[in-house]
Amino acid sequence: LAISTLLFDQPAFRSCIVLGHVQDKYGQKMSKHKGNVVDPFNVLERLGADAVRWYFYSASAPWLPSRFSDDLVAEGQRKFMGTLWNVYAFFVLYANMDCFDPNEHQGSPYGERPILDRWILSRLSTLVSTVDGHLDNYRITEAARAAARFVDQLSNWYVRRSRERFWEKGMEQDKVNAYSTLYAVLTTVSKVLAPFVPFLAEEMYQNLVRTVSKDHEESVHLCLYPEPETAHVDTELEQDMDALLDIVAAGRACRSQANMKVRQPLRQMYVKAPQVLPEDYHNVVKEELNVKSLHFVNETEGFYEYQIQANFPKLGPKFGKLVPKIAQALSELSSTEAAALQSQKKIKLDVNGQPLFLDQDDVIIKIMAKAGFAVEVEGQVQVVLETELDEELIEEGFVRELISKTQTMRKEAGFAVQDHIRVYHRGSDRIAGVLERNRETIMDEVLAEDISASKPQGYAKQWTINGEPVELGVEKL
User: Contacts for 337-344 with beta carbons within 8 Å, 24 or more apart?
Assistant: First the structure.
């Protein structure tokens, strides 16, 4: 800087990022004396250069100190790179099976594609704009985290919700749309991520693009950085899907709270949210949370009660010996009184005839669901699930579990996706009845030609399904 100023009367660079220190996993400065120095070449050998790069990009801003360890790098590798690679591998597996060729199989125009396709293409264009804007302004970490969120949604929402479209027979237009959409996403993502994970991006590009046509650039690193497809950006659609994802997350939390597996169908679901989702989204929520009916309501307070408790670590230093009496007074408040207090900055109590004023953090306000319901409040979204089960719902739960266990056994036995099987079972009269009454449904789901109540053949395994011990077997035909 001094030389450039002296010779040319201008700085030597337009922008400068000063990197923070790399510390050990405990936040201590690395030094040979402490013995906490990490040999970078050993880490590169074990976990790869892309994993190390990605960790530094996504962990914290470059100018802040960053803690470094094999475990932290491996976690980023698993959560981000592993997730992206699984999506890529999923596409390659089924595209090869169906001989999908992006030059021959053309997807429908954007406006004619299903909501899920339009959403992920809109999110892709938003991602391109977001990452490009962050990189232009040296916001490396923000760009990396935006990419990580997109990959998570791509895998855990788009691909998971679209899997059955890839399993359909033939090459109907809906299946072609799914392939075309995922192909466009993966090829664009390889270019977006090229500065972050260059080797992974190159591997994806070579297999997805160069094998289709040699007319494309020789390397992903010779491509122009992608530009957003502005015609694909649908802000309202993205907002609706974000709201849907919030509702689903709260619904899953309800199920977890009630200790109910997602495979067990439930009768009713009530949602209070800032916006009512369009009708097209209702079935998605019901399928995702396995509920029969979805109702958007103005109030959900009839399904739960408020309970207010003393926060002893906060009250102790303030009120000393009065704390037990304050706790007693709080426990005697009704649900209505507790609800009225939750929005007040100061909470007034009468203790021994004297008024006391508590701050919000002096108390803990809990929402307690009434019997037969589970409640979860997530920001502005409130979700209530009716958890009462009748015989019809219980049987459906058995059917879902049997399908899931059979699919797991197919995978463990090494069967191909398209292999047809015979299913065997013994050991439970109740499960035998469920299998008989739902025979066609189960056979269709697991590609079975027959269900036999006899000694299991082929690959066999003991299970306990909803408390019922049973031995199942799967045999490839």
Answer: 338/305, 338/306, 338/307, 338/308, 338/365, 339/301, 339/306, 341/308, 341/365, 342/306, 342/308
* 3-state SS string for the chain: CHHHHHHHCCCCCCCCCCCCCEECCCCCECCCCCCCCCCHHHHHHHHCHHHHHHHHHHHCCCCCCEECCHHHHHHHHHHHHHHHHHHHHHHHHHHHHCCCCCCCCCCCCHHHCCHHHHHHHHHHHHHHHHHHHHHHCCCHHHHHHHHHHHHHHHHHHHHHHHHHHHHCCCCCHHHHHHHHHHHHHHHHHHHHCCCCCHHHHHHHHHHHHHCCCCCCCCCHHHCCCCCCCHHHCCHHHHHHHHHHHHHHHHHHHHHHHCCCCCCCCEEEEEEECCCCCCHHHHHHHHHHHCEEEEEECCCCHHHEEEEEEECHHHHHHHHHHHHHHHHHHHHCCCHHHHHHHCCCCEEEEEECCEEEEEEHHHEEEEEEECCCEEEEEECCEEEEEECCCCHHHHHHHHHHHHHHHHHHHHHHCCCCCCCCEEEEEECCHHHHHHHHHCHHHHHHHHCEEEEECCCCCCEEEEEEECCEEEEEEEEEC
Q: Name the pTM for this structure.
A: 0.79
Q: Are 429 and 469 in contact (CB under 8 A)?
A: no
Strand partners for 366: 307
Q: What are phi and psi of 293, to 5 degrees?
A: -135, 140
56, 140 Cβ separation under 8 angstroms: no
Which candidate, 24, 1, 2, places its Cα nearest to that of 12?
1
Local confidence pLDDT in tens for the 477 residues of the chain: 899 999 999 999 888 888 888 888 888 888 888 888 888 888 888 889 999 999 999 988 888 888 888 888 889 899 999 999 999 999 999 999 999 998 888 888 998 999 999 999 999 999 999 999 999 998 999 999 999 999 999 999 999 999 989 988 888 899 999 999 999 999 999 999 999 999 999 999 999 999 988 889 999 999 999 999 999 999 999 999 999 999 999 999 999 988 888 899 999 999 988 888 888 889 999 999 999 999 998 887 777 777 777 788 877 887 787 788 888 877 777 666 666 666 666 677 777 777 777 777 777 777 777 788 888 877 778 899 999 999 999 999 999 999 999 999 999 999 988 899 999 999 999 999 999 999 999 999 999 999 999 999 899 999 999 899 999 999 998
